[in-house]
Amino acid sequence: MLEAKNLTCVRGTRRLFKDLNFSITAGELVELRGPNGSGKTSLLRILCGLATPAAGEVHWQGQNIRSLGEEYSAVVAYLGHQNAIKDELSAMENLRISSACAGKVLSLSEAQETLKRVGLSQQQNLPARVLSAGQRRRLAMTRLLTADARLWILDEVLTSLDDTAINLSREFITEHLKNGGMAIVATHQDLNLSVPRIQQLQLS
Amino acid sequence: MWRDLILAWRRRADVLATLFFFVIVTSLFPLGIGPEREVLRTIAPGVVWVAALLASMLSLGRTFGNDYQDGTLEQLLLTPQPAYLVVLAKVIAHWIVAELPLVLVAPVLGLQFGLPQNSIAIIVVSLLLGTPVLSVIGSIGAALTLGLRAANVLVALLVLPLYIPVLIFGSGAVQASVAGTSPQAWLLLMGATLMVSLVFAPWATGAALKISVE
Q1: Does residue A80 form part of some domain?
Q2: Which ipTM was obtained for this model?
Q3: Residue A95 belongs to what domain range?
Q4: pTM for this one?
């Protein structure tokens, strides 16, 4: 279970949010909404431990994520605005290297299978620089599928995806939640997910 | 680490640029100063070492810069490995890509200055011990200046003063061997510097990266 306790975030002189409290348990989805600049990305970065809040704490299974350190990193998969894709490497290499860095070595067939799931099997040996924006986003999504992370933190996943890919990512999130995972998704579009437990979190 | 090596291979031009910079800078001195043997021998240790420092500065920005821009750095910091190991892997990769070629080409440059054979050997040994220190200390500066506008200039200002001990030990070793005395003490000092910086610097770099990513 992930708990946010009295989170406050300050950017420069502006206070983005104050005393934010929420918690999320297995199988639950949090939809994070709010206008541009309301602190969605900042909140997500705090939750995955990349940024420190001005005040408040984030707890995972009752322990502060600061003290958990790398142990916490193993449970989280974060997909930010940036795709973290290397232009010089092929789609296949990107996938295999990033998952090896995350501590999981993929065999060739596992990697092919994963790329097929996101519809990139035709492009697996092309350098990532020739992929379109949507295809790059799909490639970034493969990180979620291979990571075995309990908690997905997703920042605007649906941008530049076509209809098929949007459906695909809905499918992935639903499946993840069914398997007892948790997801926190910042979005402007409606996710329209048919999952039992959804929390709406509105930043203003 | 393999990832960095593959990436470097795909961007060979960058690596070669550093190497040619080193070669050209050191070659300018014999051309500019003239062929007097004694003078060249006296300045050789300093020139080779200063050129090595500057050449390694050139490639520092790339250690983390590209990864920072495309978001890979965040992901690396979110992996279950400690930041220390991530940094160490990147530093080793940087050394192999940017510094090892300098060490390999140094004997040829030593010839330009008319150095005796054993001094050339000492140049190579001192560079072998000293260049990892440049990589690892430089990584602190590179991490601290990530995402800043005048990053390259700032790195030079931050890091070059920290390179001074390495420069003194390194050129001291070579000078000692040119003068016919034993360079052992200098080389031992360098080895000690290497050990200390390998233990502490990656840790500092890791902390600096976390601040820069935030």
Answers
A1: no
A2: 0.83
A3: 85-148
A4: 0.83
